[in-house]
C-alpha cells in the first residue's frame, strides 16, 4: 500500500513538473492589439534569438512567446493574414503586441500605415 502511494505521488509530481515545463499548447493562445514593423535599420543585425535579422523573412518579435513559435497574424485593418516565426523580443512600445519584419508587414499590406490592429493565434 505504501509503495503504491509513493508511486502515485511520484507520478503526480512528475506530471506536474512536465506540465510546468511545456510551452503554450496549439490553439490556446489568442491576443489582440497593435502590430508595427521594422526593417532596413535592423537588417543584418543579431536578434534576441541570436540569428541575423533578415527584413524580407516572415519573422516577428514578441515579448513572451518562445523563439521558433509560429504565429498566425490577422490584420483587422486590411483583412490580410500571414504566418510568422518568432525570432526576436519586443515590441518595446506601449500598446503594441508584435513587431513584424518588413516582409511580413508587406504581406499584411501595412507598410504605409506603419501600425495596424491584429489578432494573433498559434499555428
Explain how this protein is built.
The chain is an alpha/beta fold and 123 residues long. It has a single domain, classed as RlpA-like domain (Barwin-like endoglucanases). 21% of the residues lie in helices and 33% in strands. It is built from two helices and six strands; from the N terminus they run αβββββαβ. It has a six-stranded mixed β-barrel.
Strand content: 25-35%
Which stretches of 5+ consecutive residues score pLDDT under 50?
13-22
Structure class? alpha/beta
Helix fraction by DSSP (H/I, runs of at least 4): 10-25%
Q: Indicate the radius of gyration in whole angstroms.
A: 19 Å
| First-residue to last-residue Cα separation | 46 Å
Mean pLDDT: 87
CATH class: Mainly Beta
Number of structural units classed as domains: 1
Any descriptors?
globular, single chain, alpha/beta, 123 residues, 6 strands, six-stranded mixed beta barrel, Barwin-like endoglucanases
Give a brief outline of the structure.
This protein has 123 residues and is an alpha/beta fold.
Topology:
Layout: H1 2-21, E1 30-38, E2 59-61, E3 70-75, E4 81-88, E5 96-101, H2 102-107, E6 115-122
Parallel strand pairs: 1-5, 2-4
Antiparallel strand pairs: 1-6, 2-5, 3-4, 3-6
